[in-house]
Amino acid sequence: MNITFIIRVISYAIGVLLLASFPVRTKRLKLEAGECLLPLKRSTSKMYIVAILLCFAVIFILRFRDFQLYITVIMDLACVLGINLAVRETVNRSASGVYENALVTEGDLFYRKNIIAIPEITNEKDDDDSTSESSYENTLKIVTQKAGETWIAFDTAEEKRAALLILKDWV
């Protein structure tokens, strides 16, 4: 038994554990976020399932190649990271909504305590100026402590307006 075989087995095990963590991650997200105040369009994409399958396939195919140890470690870690990202995106997309303590949309998770400002709320004007950068019909700009300025896309303008009514209390 050589070291590359052990690395490969560990990669498979971590990948399977990441897949098995899906229900736990979903439950933890909903516990931390609190009650759902406004469910947003929840999308699932087959792209993430394909990404997970491709990551496992790459780990499998690499067993037929003889790379140096550090290349093997890097390739397997990249595949494990890909599985982790795909599972995280799937969890976030399946739980899209405005919660008591978080905003989850388009695979992104923003905790209420990390949102510094929402320029569309803090710079509101009486007239409807459709040329300003913050008035795109389905997008909302938020400023967070960690990510800085971020744009969030909503499915419809009505969904954005309903979310803004709740988010007004956050800033």
Q: How are the SSEs ordered, and which strands pair?
A:
Blueprint: H1 3-20, H2 22-33, E1 36-39, H3 46-62, H4 69-94, E2 97-99, E3 102-105, E4 108-111, E5 115-117, H5 119-122, E6 139-144, E7 148-153, H6 157-167
Antiparallel strand pairs: 1-2, 2-3, 3-4, 5-6, 6-7
Short description:
The protein has 171 residues and is of the alpha+beta class. The chain has six helices and seven strands, in the order ααβααββββαββα. Mean pLDDT is 85; it is low at 124-135.
The share of residues in helices is: 40-55%
Strand content: 15-25%
SSE ordering: HHEHHEEEEHEEH
Low-confidence stretches: 124-135
Q: Between the first and last Cα atoms, what is the distance in angstroms?
A: 58 Å
As a whole number of angstroms, the C-alpha radius of gyration is 20 Å
Count of domains: 2
Mean pLDDT score, rounded?
A: 85
Structural class: alpha+beta
Number of helices: 6
> What is the number of beta strands?
7
The biggest sheet amounts to: 4 strands, antiparallel
Given the C-alpha coordinates, what overall shape results?
elongated
Spatial ordering of strands, largest sheet: 1-2-3-4
Characterise the protein shown here.
The protein is α+β, with helices and mostly antiparallel strands and 171 residues long. It has 2 domains: 3-97; 102-167, no CATH class. 51% of the residues lie in helices and 18% in strands. The chain contains 6 helices and 7 strands; from the N terminus they run ααβααββββαββα. It has helices at residues 3-20, 22-33, 46-62, 69-94, 119-122, 157-167; strands spanning 36-39, 97-99, 102-105, 108-111, 115-117, 139-144, 148-153. The strands form 2 sheets. A 4-stranded antiparallel β-sheet has the order 1-2-3-4, with helices on both faces. Helix 1 packs parallel to helix 4 (69-94), helix 2 (22-33) crosses helix 4 (69-94) and helix 3 (46-62) runs antiparallel to helix 4. The longest helix has 26 residues, at 69-94. The protein is elongated.
